[in-house]
Specification:
heterodimer; A: alpha+beta; Translation Initiation Factor IF3; 2 helices; B: alpha/beta; Hypothetical Protein Ychn, Chain: A; five-stranded parallel β-sheet; 9 helices; elongated
């Protein structure tokens, strides 16, 4: 669906549950440069609302897209500052 | 009809009120507006970084009650918040290097536990329920207590161990994980809490 988003890095948090997908996303974002896009691949269904809520509340990140399919939840987060 | 009368009365009242406002009153009001706008600007500057701050008081040391403060602390740190967790009484065990490896789940006093209290009170039952919960945690890929502590420390969470209860429980300051702050008490916790956006007692 969102093949047009090209991610700089991919973070695999498959199998991990709350709060680790959000926590590891934050840690991975910290290591990226401004405008880089992180793709987060999770199996935790709660990651859909957790990462959306995190991105909404946290400065310097923007949630570009979330894609669900085959039990995998993909999140695309851009570092904005 | 009566509406017309009300409207004209209101107009009269407004005219009277306007007539009674002196230039001094207007000047005073304008000065007050300027003053308030300045104050508002200051408040906005103070909130400029809009970085949240959270303080949790962790008082429980059972396996189930160790999770909420650690999950909230690590998540708030992921939000970029400034986080302090003040551990007191049994909450100290979460920060205790040795005891944190062996947090127990009680088989009694929890009506949601699928076991009558009379059975749960038998010797070894706490260990059994703890093992069952540990297995569930592992099977579900839920983060371990150790993982949450390590992650939180990495992310800059300030873990504090209440000095009065360290002494009360006969613990040693060296018993706690590296990075845990000791020598703190209620006053420093309150000092942190008054500045925090979120304060929780767990």
């Amino acid at each position: 669906m969102s093949v047009d988003i090209s991610a700089t890095e991919t973070l695999d948090v498959k199998g991990e549950n709350c709060p680790m997908p959000v926590v590891k996303t934050k840690q991975a974002i910290d290591d990226l440069a401004v405008d880089d896009v992180l793709e987060v691949v999770a199996t935790d269904s709660g990651s859909m609302s957790d990462i959306a809520g995190w991105a909404d509340t946290t400065n310097g990140v923007e949630l570009l897209d979330q894609v669900e399919g085959d039990g995998v939840y993909k999140h695309y987060v851009r570092k904005t500052e | 009809m009566s509406t017309d009368t009300d409207a004209s009365e209101t107009e009269d009242a407004a005219a009277t009120a306007a007539g009674s406002v002196s230039p001094e009153d207007v000047a005073a009001l304008e000065a007050r507006i300027d003053e308030l706008e300045d104050e508002l600007a200051d408040v906005r500057t103070d909130e400029g970084d809009d970085q949240g701050k959270m303080v949790i008081i962790a008082t429980k040391g059972t396996l189930d009650m160790a999770y909420p403060p650690l999950i909230l602390a690590s998540t708030a740190a992921a939000f970029g918040w400034d986080v302090t967790v003040f551990h007191t009484f049994w909450g100290l065990d979460i920060l205790h290097e040795e005891r944190s490896q062996n947090l127990q789940l009680s088989a009694v006093g929890n009506p949601n536990m699928p076991m009558p209290n009379a059975l749960g009170a038998l010797p070894g039952m706490d260990r059994l329920t703890t093992k069952m919960m540990e297995k569930r945690i592992a099977d579900n890929d839920t983060a371990s207590i150790q993982e949450l502590i390590d992650t939180s420390l990495d992310m800059g969470v300030e873990f504090q161990a209440c000095q009065m209860t360290i002494d009360l429980m006969d613990y040693d300051e060296d018993d706690f994980f590296d990075g845990v702050t000791t020598g703190v008490g209620a006053a420093s916790a309150l000092g942190d809490m008054v500045d925090a956006d979120v304060q929780l007692l767990v």
